Amino acid sequence: MRELRNKSSISRSKLAQRADMDVRHLARIEAGDGKPTLFVLIQLATALDVKPDTFVKGLTSADLPENLKPYSEADFRRELRRRGGS
After folding, report:
1. Residues in CB range of 26: below 8 A, 6 or more apart
2. Helix (H, G, I), strand (E, B), or coil: what is residue 35?
3. Structurally, what CATH architecture does the domain formed by 2-82 represent?
4. How many whole angstroms separate alpha carbon 56 and alpha carbon 42?
5. pLDDT tens per residue, range 31-57
6. How far is Cα 80 from Cα 8, in angstroms, rounded to an integer?
7. For residue 62, what pLDDT is reported?
8. So where are the chain's domains?
9. Helices 38-48 and 23-31 sit at what angle, rounded to 10 degrees?
10. How does pLDDT run across 6-29, given as a tens digit for each residue?
11. Residue 1 and residue 71: Cα distance in Å, rounded?
């Protein structure tokens, strides 16, 4: 995110304004501490004039932080059974 912003010569506050978001949220996203929703990624992509897939292209579950794990279909079914669902 920061790289794209710098490449476009846009300040953090200007990008936040264009994306209609709080500059502190953008700072957290750029630092890798924020967890942007798909909606936020689309807002940022639009503000930077890039396609939204720019942010996720080529990523896999291996790119998730260590404290997160992919939630598979098997995980979902196991949790459903644990809760007494079908």
Report:
1. 1, 12, 15, 16, 19, 34, 44
2. coil
3. Orthogonal Bundle (1.10)
4. 11
5. 988 889 999 999 999 999 999 999 989
6. 46
7. 79
8. 2-82
9. 100
10. 999 999 999 999 999 999 999 999
11. 25
